[in-house]
Structure prediction request, 265 residues.
Amino acid sequence: MLEIFTIPFLQRAFIAGALVGFLSSYFGVFVVQRGMGFLGSGLAHAAFGGVAIGIFLNQEPLLFAIPFTILVAIAITYVKEKTNLAEDTAIGIFFSVSMALGIIFIALKKNYSSDAFNYLFGSILAVNYNDILITSLLSLVTIILFPYWKKWAYSSFDRELAYTDKIKVVFDDYLLNIMVAITIVVSIKVVGIVLIAACLVIPPAAARLVSKTFSKMTVLSIFLGVISTFIGIIFSYYLDLPTGALIILLQAVFFFFFMLIKNNS
Prediction:
């Protein structure tokens, strides 16, 4: 079984999977705690618009998807702050517009099916060194921004009190949503646009069931995100099944296991 760790494309998959598992699970704790599960789904589908532009122009899709999704995340936050519309309404608007743009650009492009399929459903076994480099840089930025964890946690639990303590809550919201947007884009090659929202929600939700503090929830969420990715890749290789789908199913197993523990404790 150890030979699996000597195969180059699987080595790249394990590295990319570990980084994506860390990023999605780390930012996912704030998504879950703030009740923003729809944001992950919305930004994931918004990323499709950027991917489609890249495919249409015969360029690297991620180079277009990253700025496109960041702009959507900023626009969602801006609309939420400047209007009396609920956040899910703003997400729904930009979700729909981005998907419509993506469909139009894909329709204008001939012989697009394989590229679009890889981004929709994930292809972790096809990740290259550029994908790993981008994901590594985002992980480094996340570590540099770790002092914001306390601010994001504070405003997640008590937004009004955070305002009172003169924390720049709105700026922090923009920054968090931008980081979530970038995480989604760099993760779509691993699990795909269709499934990435689950990676943002399931490990943190499972961790929340059995964690007494937010810090413990964060650590457990990261552990679950990384270990489920590793096991999912191994199962995918030996069972010849889609990697992204197996990763999500393993995360769901962890969730229901912790739910049983919680209910029986």
The radius of gyration is 18 Å.
